[in-house]
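@here heads up, posting the sequence + SMILES for the zinc ion run so it's all in one place. Ping me if the SMILES looks off, I pulled it from an old spreadsheet.
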Amino acid sequence: MYRLLFFILFLSVNLFGQENCIKIKLNLTHNEDYTFTYENARLILTGNGRNDTLRPNRELEFNMENLTKGDYQFRIIPNNSLDRTTEHYYKFHFDTPAQQKHPFEITYSPFCPYSIENKTCPVCCTEKHVIPVRYGLIAVIEKRDKNGNIINDDKKKFKAGGCVVSDCDPQWYCEQDDVKF
Ligand SMILES: [Zn+2]
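bot reply: prediction finished. Complex structure tokens:
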């Protein structure tokens, strides 16, 4: 089974100038995470013969230097899971010569925002319509009465979360507000 979700973001690069470098900047969701992020965040760059682990500078920027023409991917660790549309893997094609005027900015939190303990919906602020999210292959056994009608068992209700899991996934789903958290 895949351990990480595989989301892809194509970065477009301005193909002018001389520097073979791409800069990535982390925008913290919570400013109080700065010290932890500065000390612990790493950018893992792979592809096109590279396998680099980069540390951020004081501005929380990563410099991917000496890039040559080709396809790359990178990810930020520990989990970059808050923005679930762009997390885990970013892919880009680098062309030379290339120069980047502004760093690409990534919204980042080093901590997983989801918790099995927190069952309160962030929208309606109650647990009334909240059911668990289940991952993996789910076999559903329907209970039927003697007339063949399905017996609803609300305690068995859940939202299917898909087969691919990461180390940071939503645990709960509010049926009223259609939100996972
Ligand atoms: Zn709700």
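MO: The CA atoms of residues 42 and 55 lie 5 Å apart.
MO: One more: Residues 121, 123-124, 129, 174, 176-177 surround zinc ion (CB under 6 Å).
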